[in-house]
C-alpha cells in the first residue's frame, strides 16, 4: 500500500532527467507527468502566441496555434487518463482520488475540444448561419473554465502529500515522518526545480505552478523528517 502511495506522489514530478527511472516503474510518475506536461504545454502555447506578428492575417496564425496546442493537449490528457485508469489505491480513504482526477482531465479534454472546434470553424471562413462573434466570445469562457479545472486539481495536492506521510507515529504520537527517504525527497525536489524552474518562485503563478509550489513547500519547509532519519 505504501509503495503505491509513494509512486502516486512521485508521479507528480516527472522530468526528462528521471525518465530512466520511470521506465523501470512508470506508475510512480503518472500524476505529475500530467502536471509537468501541462506546464510545458502552457509555456509552449504562450511562446507561440507571443511570436505571432500582429497584422491583417495574424488571427489565422492565432487560430492555427489554438488548434495545434489544443490537439496536442487532448492527446496527452487521453494518455494520462489511460494510465490512471490502470491504477488502484487499496486505501479506501483515498479511493476517490483517481476517479476525481480522471473526471477533471476528462472535463479538460471536453473544453479543449470546444476550443479547437471553434478555432477550426473561424479558420474555415464565412458560412451561412454561423455566429462568428459568438464563437469568438466563447473562447475566453472556455479559458476560464480550464483555469477552474486546474484550480480544482490544485486543491487536492495536500491530499496527495498526505499519501506519503508515514502512518507510524513518533515518541510523541505525532506523524512527523514521510514514508520516503531523504534521497527520494531530494530527487523529487530536483525534479520539481528542473521541470518548473524560476516559475516556482514567481509572485504570480497559475494553478499548475502553484500545485508544484505547494508540493515543494511540504517536502522542504514543513519540518517532516524522512523515513531514513532517526525516529524519536
Category by helix and strand content: mainly alpha
Overall pLDDT: 80
Number of E-type strands: 0
Which sequence of SSEs, written as H and E, runs from N to C? HHHHHHHHH
**Beta-strand residue percentage:** under 5%
End-to-end Cα distance: 24 Å
Give start-end ranges of low-pLDDT stretches. 1-29
Count of separate DSSP helical elements: 9
Radius of gyration: 20 Å
Helical amount: 55-70%
Short summary:
This protein is an all-alpha fold and 232 residues long. It is 66% helix and 0% strand.
Descriptive report:
- The structure is a single chain.
- The chain is an all-alpha fold and 232 residues long.
- It has a domain at 2-156.
- The protein has nine helices and no strands.
- The chain is elongated and about 75 Å long.
- The protein starts with a helix and ends in an 11-residue tail after the last helix.
- Mean pLDDT is 80; it is low at 1-29.
